[in-house]
From TrEMBL:
This is DUF317 domain-containing protein. It comes from the Bacteria. Pfam families: SPDY (PF03771). It comes from Streptomyces werraensis. Residues 252-267 have a biased composition (Basic residues). Residues 244-267 are annotated as: Disordered.
């Protein structure tokens, strides 16, 4: 274990011990606010009840995200309503799924979809994940073998994505995506899953696992607050930009459409 000390400490603040944990897939659940505060800053509604599970709803009410630790197995449930050519879809992620990986998917729900065709395997390949050519199901495994992403096609032809992480003691989590889950969301998840960046956990919240590596860091409360606020500010700025662009677009009135086909017949 190594130890680092952040520079620029302010007067009167007491540093707190945190740990940078890698691989991130084995870092444990983390602070739910990493997900919920970003969504709230992006215009999502908090539908949580006092003392109950977390519940967030998209501005158009098409997507609902819940985190429920009070049921078994518990964890994250994301449900999207049917719209146009998009069937209803869902994704479920275990309670120990790191919030930084959950946010890979949920953050993507707040952004416009890219014009590029999604590729779930690309982020994994870029980080050196292994894909055995003769596996029963198409599977990519992290370099240390602790995390995986699998594509499974059932007898009925429905495609299912399955992912997760597990250490040698059996601790970990799994995630499953409906066949109808938009592929750009599954790619956003795989990108966050494969990221080599460590995640931060406070003292006492680091899982007991021989497969994780930790770096001890001393962090000021003001630094933590500034990092969290930067993420929220980015979400608010992106939301403001999207809303401003939508409001400034030239609109075609219904009357214009009605008259486009020719003169109106009067009775």
């Amino acid at each position: 274990m190594t130890r680092k000390q952040w520079q620029g400490w302010g007067a009167g603040e007491q540093a707190q011990q945190h740990y940078l944990v890698e691989p991130r897939a084995l870092a444990g659940g983390g602070d739910l606010r990493h997900v919920s505060e970003f969504l709230r800053a992006s215009g999502w509604r908090d539908r949580s009840k006092a003392g109950g599970p977390l519940a967030m709803e998209s501005p158009d009410r098409a997507v609902r995200i819940t985190y429920d630790p009070f049921v078994l197995p518990g964890g994250w449930t994301i449900h999207g309503a049917a719209s146009g050519h998009q069937e209803q879809w869902w994704a479920v992620l275990g309670r120990q799924t790191p919030v930084e990986i959950v946010a890979g998917l949920t953050d993507a729900l707040t952004r416009p979809r890219s014009a590029h065709a999604p590729n779930v395997w690309a982020p994994l390949r870029e980080q050196g994940w292994d894909r055995p050519p003769n596996a029963e199901h198409v599977t990519a495994t992290s370099p240390d073998g602790s995390a995986w992403m699998q594509f499974h096609q059932g007898p009925d032809g429905e495609a299912m994505w399955w992912s997760g992480a597990k250490d040698k003691q059996g601790n970990g989590w799994t995630a499953q995506f409906a066949p109808s889950t938009p592929m750009h969301l599954v790619q956003a998840f795989s990108t966050a899953l494969a990221s080599p960046e460590p995640v931060m956990r406070p003292l006492g919240r680091v899982p007991h696992s021989a497969q994780i590596r930790t770096t001890s860091v001393s962090v000021l409360p003001s630094q933590l607050s500034a990092w969290q606020q930067a993420r929220i500010t980015a979400a608010r700025a992106a939301t403001w930009a999207r809303n401003s662009w939508a409001a400034s677009r030239p609109r075609t009135t219904a009357r214009h459409h009605a008259n486009a086909g020719g003169a109106r017949t009067h009775r």
